[in-house]
Amino acid sequence: MTDTERRPFRVVVVNAGVSDPSSTKMLADRLALRVEAAAQRGGDTVETLHLDLRELLPELSGALASGHLGPKFTKAIEALRDADGIIATAPVYKAGPSGLFSSFFQVLDNDLLIAKPVVLGATAGTARHALVVDEQMRSLFAFLRTMTTPTSVFASTEDWQDKALGKRIDRAARELVVLMASGVEAQIKDSSWEHYQHVFGSAGGSELGIDLNSDLMRLAAGGSLGPQK
């Protein structure tokens, strides 16, 4: 494929901020702009899709309780599946990423984001929460087997006036572009896909062989271990 034939990078910006205006959204937007600029310097373009998680709140309870995905939730998952890279930002509440942010990513299929390049960012009112990104958010995305950039971005209230924040944003953006340009996601999936677990409906049909009448499955469904008629 020649340079003129290269398609744009598809970047999904996941923002868990709920206020308006939102510092979390502002951080996500700045990251997105710097990713676009970094890609352009390398002769590439970016198609950016903004995903505000607060718009999914009406469908979140059903997704958590029963795995039922509403239309907006389904579109969000499809966007993440097709993305070349993800920018994921969350506000910090009570020394951790917001419940909205964590719940959304916990609902996703374990295999959805394998080897997907991701930049992580968080905002808080104080610098005391600076390690939330690397201690809590990064571990969640490690479980999802994503390719998180070496640089994460945290912004407390005082950071917005600090030039160092802009430098971290630029560095993280460049790292994301390098990962996307390398094609690391496709290379890992092409060579290693058969070694993954493929759980939550992605087991190629093998999950249909589960014995639903076993003692364990009857208990899980709220039944008893007594004789079955």
How would you portray this structure in words?
The chain is 42% helix and 16% strand. Strands 1, 2, 3, 4, 5, 6 and 7 form a seven-stranded mixed sheet that branches. The protein is α/β, with parallel strands linked by helices. The protein starts with 8 loop residues before the first strand and ends in a 9-residue tail after the last helix. The chain has a single domain, classed as Rossmann fold (3-Layer(aba) Sandwich). About 4% of the residues have low confidence.
Could you name the key traits of this structure?
229 residues, alpha/beta, Rossmann fold, 7-stranded mixed sheet, 42% helix, globular
- CATH fold annotation: Rossmann fold
CATH 4th-level superfamily: Flavodoxin domain
- End-to-end span in angstroms? 64 Å
What is the mean predicted local confidence, pLDDT?
Answer: 88
The share of residues in helices is 40-55%
> What would you call the structural class?
alpha/beta
Q: Sketch the major β-sheet.
A: 7 strands, mixed
Give start-end ranges of low-pLDDT stretches.
200-208
Give the SSE order as H and E letters: EHEHHEEHEHEEHHH
Under CATH at level 1, the class stands as Alpha Beta
How many helices? The count is 8
Q: Assembly type of the shown chains?
A: single chain
Please indicate the count of domains.
Answer: 1
In CATH terms, what is the architecture? 3-Layer(aba) Sandwich
Question: Radius of gyration, rounded?
Answer: 20 Å
Organism: Leifsonia williamsii
InterPro entries: CE1759_FMN_reduct (IPR023932), Flavoprotein-like_sf (IPR029039), FMN_Rdtase-like_dom (IPR005025), NAD(P)H-dep_FMN_reductase (IPR051814)
Pfam families: FMN_red
Protein name: NAD(P)H-dependent oxidoreductase
